[in-house]
Specification:
Layout (H helix, E strand, L loop, with lengths): L7 H78 L4 H8 L3 H15 L6 H7 L23 H12 L1
C-alpha cells in the first residue's frame, strides 16, 4: 500500500477548497476595507461641512458683536461728551469714570467728530441747525458748532490745563 492513503483527486479538492476559502477571505477583507473607506470619506465631508458652518456662524456673530460694540462705544463717548458740554473738565470727566485723561479726551473727541454732520451745501447746513440757535444744546450729538471748541489745538491746550 501507499504511504499516502488519500487519492490525488482529494488533494486537488482540498487545494480548490483552500484556494476558494483564501479568495473568499480576500473578498470579505476588500468589502470591509471599501466600507471603512466609504465611512471615512463620508465623515470627512461631514467634518468639512461642520467646519464651514462653524466659520459662517462665527462670522455672523462677529459682525453682530461688532455692530453692538460700535453702538456701545458710541453711547459711551456721547455720555462723556455730554459731561464735557455741561462744563466738566477733561480731567474731571476722566476721574468720574476712572479713565486716563488721554482716553477720556479721545472718546469725547470721537463723539464730537461723529456728531458733526457732513453737509454738501450751506443750505443743508442751515436747515440742519437747531431752531433755538441762541441756546447751547446739552445733547452732544446735536451740539451747535459755537459750543464746540474751534480746533483740536484748543482741546489739547484745555487738556493740558486740566492735567496741571
Amino acid at each position: 500500500m501507499s504511504q499516502f492513503p488519500r487519492s490525488t483527486s482529494s488533494a486537488r479538492e482540498r487545494a480548490r477548497k483552500a484556494n476558494a476559502h483564501r479568495l473568499a477571505v480576500a473578498r470579505e477583507r476588500l468589502k470591509k476595507q471599501e466600507s471603512d473607506l466609504v465611512s471615512y470619506f463620508d465623515a470627512t465631508r461631514e467634518e468639512d461641512r461642520i467646519e464651514q458652518d462653524l466659520a459662517e456662524r462665527i462670522d455672523r456673530l462677529r459682525s453682530a458683536a461688532r455692530v453692538k460694540l460700535e453702538g456701545a462705544r458710541g453711547r459711551r463717548a456721547s455720555a462723556l461728551a455730554a459731561l464735557k458740554v455741561r462744563g466738566e473738565t477733561y480731567s474731571a470727566v476722566a476721574s468720574l469714570v476712572d479713565l486716563p485723561v488721554a482716553e477720556a479726551t479721545k472718546l469725547i473727541r470721537s463723539a464730537r467728530r461723529a456728531s458733526v454732520p457732513l453737509c454738501e451745501s450751506d443750505d443743508e447746513q442751515s436747515s440742519a441747525a437747531p431752531s433755538d440757535a441762541g441756546e447751547a444744546s446739552t445733547d452732544p450729538v446735536h451740539t451747535s458748532p459755537e459750543s464746540v471748541p474751534p480746533s483740536a489745538d484748543a482741546d489739547a491746550s484745555a487738556s493740558n490745563r486740566d492735567v496741571a
